[in-house]
Every structure is written in structure tokens, then in C-alpha cells.
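Entry 12.
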Amino acid sequence: MTTQEEQTRAGLQFPTGFAFGAATSAYQIEGAVDEDGRGVSIWDTFTKTPGRVLNGDNADVAIDHYHRYREDVRIMAELGLSAYRFSVSWPRIQPDGSGRINQKGLDFYKRLTDELRGHGIDPWLTLYHWDLPQALEDRGGWPNRDTAYCFADYAATVHEALKDHVHTFSTVNEPWCTAFLGYASGEHAPGRREPENAIRGAHHLNLAHGLSVQAMGARRVGGCVNLYAITPATASEADQDAARRIDGLQNRFFLDALMTGRYPQDVLDDLGMDLSFIRDGDMATIKAPIDLLLVNYYSRFTVSGAPGGRASAAAAPTDTGSPWVGSEHVSFVNGGRPVTAMGWEIDRSGLLEVLSRVARDYPGIPMVVSENGAAFDDVLEHGRVHDAERVDYLDAHLRACRDAIDAGVPLEGYFAWSLMDNFEWAWGYGKRFGLVHVDFETQRRVLKDSALWYSEIIRQNRRHEQTDS
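Predicted 3D structure (C-alpha cells):
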């Protein structure tokens, strides 16, 4: 290439220090579910329940990252990643969810973070990515207020053990999914369909975030939300109201709580339930100051208040209820955009929209795109995976990030989801999001074309940083 590497692939040049990373989660990659003192999680139980996961898949082995982490870190280094976002398995640290600490669990994450730092990769640690210890679920799970306090104790333990290894901690990944897919629709573990308990769980997840921020007192702590751009299907009053409702429960319920210490009154009115579980002082705790906001973005929702559409944004692989507590009548319609293998519409403009909205409505908070990616029907042929659709997806969304920065959004990094193909929750091994192809039988890793493309973007940006310095 010539001319400043063709202007870094025609516009994909980012400010000095911008973090280029990839993300994973513990349950989806680690395996080793009964090794070195790890306890049982709700996902262990869920996957062993017939009919819950496509093809009866489970993550007992997953992609064996627990044993292969050194190989996986070498792949990250080969790609040139500057940061890696991973989660800690709560039942690996506290098998019963409280009380006794499993030192072997902490030692694994010390080895992992040392390996990352040894390759010049900054570890970004997420405390919770959906694998609640089963012992806590047996005591009521997230609808039980005590779970939030147990989480704060767990967070303090992990922070104390790893604060010299990790400089960026985040608390709860996508609390919407835990609360509403786990306790309302039943699509995710623990598979309960109890709408009022889903709202209790959502509040206690927010409370757990605030309590853990206070407990850690770390130098750099963030909250993580999954945000969607929401479009009404038509200009009708019913569709406009549907968009308000879904935006309220998906986006504002969590953003307003974390950033302003309030729940949106219109959302509380939509719910129309006893909210006495929200106690005095809770909202001030939830608003505990954070250093950055982690934003996960995948798609845009187009919604209607008229009957006849889908009850959710993407069909689940098994029969489920509605996650939209108080707005079960809202349906999701196709907005006419291309879709991924998950059925999720591809819309880069939605990413620019949500980043700009956060910067406008909650000014002053630095952000990173902590998950962004797509599943496609990848095929390994002759040792290569030519995933041109994923390259196009990543290219488009990185351009949206660049546009956001140009518009003044304080965006500091981008993490592709996912580093590797892995266990995709209720879809089992049926959907592939990775930059790296994994043969689930042999555990062989192969870089897809998207990984090579992303690596080249990183390399060009690093070269420009060195030239400018």
C-alpha cells in the first residue's frame, strides 16, 4: 500500500491510544467446569435440562481455554490486540457464591493476566457475565436482594487479588439479558418466567453494580450496558408508543439508573407493579461514580404496537415467553435491512446513534464499544475461512466509531465480539461469532479473513502512532 497505507483503509485511522481489542466470556470459552474447585453455575444446570439448549449442547469443555489460554494469548498477540476483555467465573472463585474462596480459581486469572501483560496486552476484567453460582440461585437468584451483597463481596475479593494485574474492571455485563432473558422469557439460565421477579432482578443487578463499585474503590471501573437504536415501524401512535416502551426497558431503565440515580417514570408506569423492593438509598448507591461506560451494540430494533410481528427481536431456538415485562404486546418487525445468521439486522447507523445519544444525554462519561460483532454461517475450506460478510460488518461499525469520534463522542476503544467461536448460550455451538474459527472436536484454531483484516487495521494504526510520536 502507499499514501499513508491508503489513508488507513480510507478513513479507519483512530486517535493515538485508541484500544483495539476483542472480547470473550468465561462460561463460553473456559470449559473445565469441574476442575480445581470450581462450583456449579446456573448455566451448568440449565444446559443439562432437556430442551433448554439447541441440540442439547453444553459448555463442559467449550473451547478449552482453561487449558489452552497460553495458545489463545499468543493468537491475540499475533493479531496485535492492545486489550482483551474477559470475564471471571464467579463459581470458580466462590463455589457457593459466598464464603469460602477458591484460591486455585484466583490463581488461574493471575496466570492469564500475567500472560496477557507479558505479551503487551492490557487485561480488561468483567466481574459477571451471566454465570451465577447455582447455590445463590437456590436461595432466590437475582430477585433475592442478598445476591447483590454477595456480589459486592465477590467483587472486593477479585479486585484485591488482581488489582496489581488489571487496571480496568467492569461490573455486570448486560444486566438486561440476565434479568429479562433469565427471569421473564426463560430463554437464558435460570430459565424462569416470572415477570415481576425479572424487574426485581433488574433492580438488584443495578444495585450489585453500585455496591461493587463502592467495594472495589478501583482506579478505573465501568458499567456495561447493551444498547439498541429503536425505530417505530410507522408514524402511528401505537408504533410510537411501542418504540418508547422498548427504549425505556432496554436502554433508559439502565442508563438513567447508572448515570442519574433515577428510573424513568414512564417505565415504572408501564410496569404498574409494587416497587417496594426499591429501598431508600438504593438509587444513590447505583449511581456510584464510574470512570467509563462500556457499550455493547449489535443491531437496531424496529417495533410495532400492532399485533402480528415477532414477540422478540430474534427467534429463540426453544420455546420462550416474552422478555418485555409490561409491554408484552409489542412486536418486532423486519426493517428491510440485511441480517446476520442470528436474524439481527445490520445497521451501522444505529451504533453512531446510540453513542451520540449517550454523549448528549449523559455528558462527560468516556465510552468504549465493549462488544460488537456478527454471527455468519462460516465454512472452513482448505484451511481458510473467507468471511467477507463479517469483514464488511466490522468495517462498517468501525467507521461508525470513527464518525462518532469526529462528532465529539469521547470514545476510547473498540472490542470485537468475539475473539473466537464459542458456546453461544441457548444456541449451543450453532452460531459462530469469532474472528478465529474453532473446530469444536479438535480445538484447532484458524484465523478467519476477518481476523487478518482486523489485524491489518490495528497494524496500520500503530504504525501511524509511531510516525506521529
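Annotation: Residues 3-236+249-301+339-468 form a domain with the TIM Barrel fold (CATH 3.20.20.80). The chain has a mean pLDDT of 96.
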